[in-house]
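Please, structure for the following, as tokens.
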Amino acid sequence: MELICEELNVLPAGGRVQFTCVASSNMWTAFGANTGSIYMHSSGSLERNAVVVVADQPISQIAFNPTAELFAVSADRNVFIVRHNSSSRSSAEILLRVQPHDSPITCFAWDSDSNRVFSGSESGVVAITRVPSVCAHLMSVICYCTTTPVAY
């Protein structure tokens, strides 16, 4: 089997933006950048759909929930839950922002029901961020959550 790789030219002009992470779903491919922005592309055509500004720090990770309606983003010690409006080239709504860790986040993942985001940090702490059902059902309100450290 031959492996075929092709180079994508998805960086904006100017050269100051560097991609720091990538996530893909059946609908979107999202590139996180050192500028705190996320570059959203349609998964099929890879045509840029929007640039979403999420944080004032580099984006370290992106993860889509199982339905790809929401995505979680980490930047340093913060977790953001974002809803992207695909009908607008720059519209996104930050539904939730929490700081569940005292050190940078190194990994995270959604549960299968989109009710929780599990995150781990450099200090070895695992936290569970509970995403209220109002966020999971895409209601247009600001959501608050609880974060629970997990001891092992």
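The chain has one domain: 19-150. Helices lie at 133-136.
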